[in-house]
Amino acid sequence: MTQAEIKLCSLLLQEHFGEIVEKIGVHLIRTGSQPLRAIAHDTGTSLDQVKKALCVLIQHNLVIYQVHKRGVVEYEAQCSRVLRMLRYPRYIYTAKTLYSDTGELIVEELLLNGKMTMSAVVKKVADRLTETMEDGKTMDYAEVSNTFVRLADTHFVQRCPWVPATENSDPGPPPPAPILVISEKDMYLVPKLSLIGKGKRRRSSDEDAAGEPKAKRPKHSTDNKEPIPDDGIYWQANLDRFHQHFRDQAIVSAVANRMDQIFRSLPVGYNISKQVLDQYLTLLADDPLEFVGKSGDSGGGMYVINLHKALGSLATATLESVVQERFGSRCARIFRLVLQKKHLEQKQVEDFAMIPAKEAKDMLYKMLSGNFISLQEIPKTPDHAPSRTFYLYTVNILSAARMLLHRCYKSIANLIERRQFETKENKRLLEKSQRVEAIIASMQATGAEEAQLQEIEEMITAPERQQLETLKRNVNKLDASEIQVDETIFLLESYIESTMKRQ
Amino acid sequence: GRGGRGRGRGGHMTFSVEAVGIGRGEALPPPTLQPSPLFPPLEYKPVPLQAGEEIEYMLALKQEFRGAMKSLPYFIKPSAPKKDIERYSDKYQMPGPAENAIEWSPDWRQLPPELKIRVQKTRKERRTVPAPKRQAKVSADKEEAIKKLETLEKKEEEVTSEEEEE
Lengths: 503, 166
Description:
By secondary structure, chain A is mostly helical.
């Protein structure tokens, strides 16, 4: 794990779980697998705090445990899984596009809570959806269940590892930790539940200002006394499946502008409309199987997708784009040239690109020091004498992609830090604004007059309002940038992973 | 390194610099003596951020998620700073959840038992045990003890109903 990745993990953990979980999580990422007491000792944290933190991390699938010899349990963090937190909004949004609001909330609840039983998810989502519906309307559990089943069938949600059922006639000593198992065939198996009920609205009288002791929240009124039908059967979001979908989306949209060409080049006899062709190609692209076949042959012509090549193209396009935006279009031209010709000498670059020597040199060095291109030595003679060696510029896509990926991690870390800084700078004002909003809300609930509300609103001065507007705009920009950089991270990681698999 | 040799080209390089385009006798640029600036000037204006409904929605999702996580029990706040001096308001403040108690219920069947925190006084099973202790305290200072009883009861109520909420 590079320092940049660890730094980013630290920021993500701290933002979502607080400093204590962050300290434990980062420690495990740095040191690898460790037992409980060692963690407490090395981090100087109390044993209880470490226990709390580990429970949270395990619940959220960020840490796993393993039983080692002599019964010692060791905990291991999954750094790459922590980084996936950047992508949560994208997972939730995708669920929305595929399975509408119900799907969206199911995935959101699973990500918020790490693991949940199906019955718990269904109830929570039904409640949340009911809140948004008109008075008198409620969301049926059955409808939410159906969506859940569809998500399981298409593998977007999956079972968490479970405790195997044992006919335990042997009352031996309890193991130091339960060994959890997972099986391919049962991973998407939905328990037979007949969840009957409707979502419940939070009654307005209970929406009082903060300070209500937790005991009074009527979240589960009478249901909680009933036994849970799917007790012990936990579900989580299947991030890999979402990644598959993103990959397919990326490839399809990259190919989309070629659609016209394909359409025009189809034989006249094909009675297929553009829309239908579109659909077929999309379906094929989305299917995890790769069709292999000669295009144009009998069978209606097969669409061949070479996944690795496609990912390589996307990664290369990303690199080209970055070179263009950082160094200008002439640099980009040189970059594309070297990509195309694979290896070029200094002189050849100048000639092919038709750029004067001095400028070409300058541009090549800029890209060289940015690690977008590299120099390769080709000795002419066995003694590798420098005067008789070719020095060629070349683009090593894999290492350039790695470099850019590393840069992306740094960028996001910077974006998060800046956002936290902006928020901290305006902390006082933000708190004041929240207090005012709370006052207005409670006044509106008790039917205050317009004039009174106006008075309260004026507690925030015009320049303060301006400051809040600016803050909001900046925070939004920074958040949006994070989302965008993560898209690039996804492309680069996909390409790198695909390349490593082939080696 | 070669810090002091900036003038002209005194030293030998291991490769022929002509091959990479540095002409004969041409001076190399001076060595860099400090780290690059924190905010280097941008040569080219950055491309504007993506816009549109999709991005707007994801932005809202992101911010809501962040906010939601902060109010869930998985967010562990650092322990309250130790009291420096006794304050008048302390008498009237609701004590927070027991310092050590975990505020949500993991499924212990799927976790190493060593992660369980033993909490005194507030666990359901232990309700009977502290009773004698409570009796002992009443005799000490009646008013103070009654207050403590009230807060202890409230604490237990919280934890109990918390447990019932699953």
